[in-house]
Design goal:
heterodimer; B: mainly alpha; 0% strand; elongated
Chain lengths: 173, 54
């Protein structure tokens, strides 16, 4: 891993580092690559920037969080027309887990149902939403859903951290 | 009992995460233990305030 670029964390600015720093295309590319890798597999962003010990810990923690949510019959969020803003944020948080999210959704419900109003339209999404509803009757389902949302939120923080390390704003260990 | 186990497990996952993410090198264990303790104690206190055992 090369030394951090000047002006982006490797060297303090005269004002204490609060001045905006213009990032070069290479830095942006490295940052985006790290963040994309982190989205594909939790912790992979840290692995590619060289923080391998952290990467393993993050992978283990996020995977354990997802697994616990799955085991507790947690549900993935859907866009609810009664609360469109907050439910969209929840869906986005679920999607922050990475490609595992649609895979889990398809495995749990049988189709990629993201919209709650499709419960009134006959078809595969309606069946999926009925499966989702049945799962929510489990005692621990709300706990499981919280674990799944937490996993997404943790992964968002990981993406931002991987970005910071990749552009040299933060040391890797 | 299962609720407490759930609390402890959740606190373990989250404190490990934040100690690794934000803790200074060499002080991560202490940071993690402080976060873990604060989460568990804070949750128990909050639970008691919301539904006190009479």
């Amino acid at each position: 891993m090369s030394a951090p670029p000047k002006g982006a964390g490797g060297k303090r600015e005269p004002d204490g580092g609060t001045a905006p720093v213009r990032l070069g295309p290479a830095q942006v590319g490295r940052g985006l690559a790290a963040a994309a890798a982190g989205w594909l597999v939790p912790g992979l962003g840290h692995w590619v920037v060289g923080a391998r010990r952290k990467a393993l810990i993050f992978f283990a923690v996020v995977t354990a969080t997802i697994t616990t949510g799955f085991a507790l019959h947690g549900n993935l969020s859907i866009v609810d027309p009664r609360t469109p803003f907050i439910s969209r944020l929840q869906v986005a948080t679920n999607l922050a887990m990475g490609p595992i999210e649609p895979v889990m959704r398809a495995a749990l419900y049988g189709s990629l149902a993201y919209r709650g109003d499709e419960a009134f339209v006959p078809g595969p999404h309606r069946q999926a939403l009925e499966r989702r509803r049945a799962r929510s009757f489990s005692t621990w389902s709300s706990f499981g859903s919280t674990y799944l949302l937490t996993a997404g939120l943790l992964n968002i923080l990981l993406l931002l951290d991987a970005w910071d390390i990749a552009i040299g704003r933060k040391p890797k260990d | 009992m299962l609720l407490l186990l759930n609390l402890v497990w959740f606190a373990t996952l989250v404190s490990t995460f934040f100690a690794t993410l934000a803790g200074q090198k060499g002080r991560r264990l202490k940071t993690g233990l402080v976060i873990w303790g604060a989460m568990v104690a804070g949750s128990v206190v909050l639970a008691f305030l919301m539904a006190p055992i009479s």
